[in-house]
Amino acid sequence: MQRFSQYAVPYNADLQKLAIDDAQTVHEDGKVVHADLHAAVFDRPAPTTVTAPQFSAEHYRIVAFPATTRGDTLRLHYTLTDLDTLYRGKFTEIANLAPTEDVEDAQETLETPRDMPVRVEANGMQAVSDTTTDSRRIRVYRYRTPASGPLAEQASAVSTLDSGPYFVATNFTSYADVARAFEAGIAPQSQPTAAIRAQADRITGDVADRRQQAMLIYEWVSRNIRYLAAYVGTGPVVPHSADSVLRDGYGDCKDHAALFIALLRAKGIRADSVLVNLGNSYRLPDAPVWYVFNHAIVWLPEFALFADTTNGFAPFGILSFAASDKPALDTATGEMLHTPPQNATNSASSINYTIKVREDGDADLAGTITLVGQIGIAPRRQLTQNTRQRIGYELLRQSGLTGTIDVLTGDANGLNAPVGLSVQGTVNGLAIMPGPAALAVPIMPNYGSIRAFAEYVLRQAGEPLNGPCGASALREHFRVELPAGAKIIAMPPDLSRTNGALAYTATYRRDGQTVDIDRTLIRDFHTNVCSGEMLKQWTPIAREISTDLKRQILYR
Fold first, then answer.
1. By the number of CB atoms within 10 A of the CB, which of 71, 210, 319, 535 ranks highest?
2. Is pLDDT larger for residue 381 or for residue 518?
3. CATH number for the 177-338 domain, one of 3.40.50.12780, 1.10.3470.10, 1.10.150.240, 3.10.620.30?
4. Is-contact 291 248, C-beta < 8 A?
């Protein structure tokens, strides 16, 4: 009821007009209740934030159906009219359906000029008819949920444009054609002017190394140009000039790209704008559609790296997880590139804790957290936007612990250094004292957890749809010191397991009242997408990891 009794129709507020013609609730007895289109229709901008930069003027028109009860049928009729197109003479139509919903009948009718070249891709849909008149061509496609029924919903899945069913139609001839259309707008806006050259010189100073120059420019734009969704005129696809972005100190993703490119070119460093999808879509339809791209970044071929200055917290050459492992269209060349996935090379977490258990079972905690590369992007943002007290509270809460901890952070603004934190405090009720009892080391305050990955594998294994999954290197060291009166009587066994791109090791060493625990999980599978079958193959090692994390130190 909550899900279907209101319906949101997306549209582009700059380029389209949307009219809700009628909304009806039809009861089982045939009685029809019409919605009051003045009181039951609401318009809202699509929810975007500074942490999710997109170029879009997307709005939602939300229709609330009246008097809905179980067994009702809901009917909505609306008219969406293009007032203009992002690219003159070009159109793109995308209709995607959730394979987890039971669709009795969905029909897509495409009518175009007879002689217009059109690329159509109807993944998982059936072609019903294709007719022509003297001037028009009409194609009809249909989708019905298979007799086996809809797929079960799952917590994490890729876009339906990666799996289907979907319908895509466009008169773009190729993705190179899409690239040319975007480049025509950004190229004139990213040329270095006198002001741009002067700023580039101020940023780089007397640094001669070209990669170092590029990194300094990246850091300056990341830190000094605010992300702001400022859409004016052809704003959705044409950036403001690099001069105006420099002057104003803000811009959206394509504005960031224009300024970054201009500053690099001022130092003789080639840079190209690149289009990617910042959502959960990891492949492109064969039909070259524009709307699958919603974010602009920059490619520096001289250094073979991508850079995204809108993120504000990523090291030079490191992308956020959302931009990783994605097809990337170089608009200057028309070439389809690919952003690197998250892996153990560009993403690593290391924690080192000393845990001194008191006679009453509470424990004094002292440790360090070190985050390198992609895994440190979100924490770096949190560290710059929250107080130490708030950070400590959240780390305890996420770990399921109670107590008090104090967090000291290094220079979170140094984009190209690892994120480092020092943690000190007290954890309540860590152990049962006096014994006999057993102690399993709980999840300690951290931003990356071995336990979380094992649980993800066991939860998602065998699911029908692919899902996003990150890879990184996770290292955990704990030194547990028991009180003098406690006698250790048993220790967990060491464990070493490898399964394809996964490698897990755990060692347990005792020295008197002290136990050193080292655990390492290397996930290096070079993809941000995991299939249910892939996770099923990892289930045995995930179970062993889960079991090992529960193993206990026995004492009396």
1. 319
2. 518
3. 3.10.620.30
4. no
Bridge partners of 132, per DSSP, are: 137
Packing angle of the helix pair 377-385, 388-399 (nearest 10 deg): 130
Question: For a pLDDT cut of 90, what percent of the chain falls above it?
Answer: 67
Q: Would you state the pLDDT for residue 51? A: 43
Report the chain's mean pLDDT, rounded to a whole number. Answer: 90
Q: Does domain 6-171 have CATH number 2.60.40.1930?
A: no
For 116, 186, 296, 304, 317, the CA distances from 329, given in Å and listed in that order, are: 25, 14, 9, 15, 17
Span 16-64, pLDDT tens digits: 899 999 999 999 999 999 999 999 999 988 765 444 444 556 789 999 9
Q: What percent of the chain has pLDDT over 70?
A: 96
Residue 77, helix vs strand vs coil: strand
Distance CA 241, CA 57 (A): 19
54 vs 228: CA distance, rounded Å: 10
- Phi, psi for 260 (deg, rounded to 5): -60, -45
Strand partners, 7: 63
> In which band, very low, low, confident or very high, does the pLDDT at 285 lie, cut at 50, 70 and 90?
very high
Interatomic CA distance for residues 167 and 408, integer angstroms: 52
Under 8 Å between Cβ of 281 and 332 = no
| Residue 157 region by backbone torsions, left for phi larger than 0, else alpha for psi between -120 and 50, else beta | beta
Q: Look at residue 127 and give its three-state secondary structure.
A: strand
| pTM score, whole prediction | 0.88
| Cα–Cα distance, 299 to 401 (Å, whole number) | 43
Q: Which of 280, 279, 326, 322 lies closest to 299 in space, CA to CA?
A: 326
**C-alpha to C-alpha distance for 534 and 501, rounded to whole angstroms:** 11
- Segment 490-504, tens digit of pLDDT: 999 999 999 888 999
108 SS3 class:
strand
Distance set, CA 420 to CA 180, 319, 529 (Å): 43, 19, 29
335, 322 in Cβ contact below 8 A? no
Q: Burial level of 163, CB count in 10 A (0-12/13-18/19+)?
A: buried
Tell the residue number behind the tokens 């007895």, with chain if given.
Answer: 29
Q: By three-state DSSP, how is residue 380 classified? A: helix
Domain boundaries, the chain: 6-171, 177-338, 347-555
Residue 411 has pLDDT above 70, yes or no: no
Host H or E run for residue 372: strand 363-373
Are 261 and 273 contacting, i.e. CB atoms less than 8 angstroms apart? yes
CA 313/CA 416 separation, integer angstroms: 9
pLDDT of the residue at 231? 43
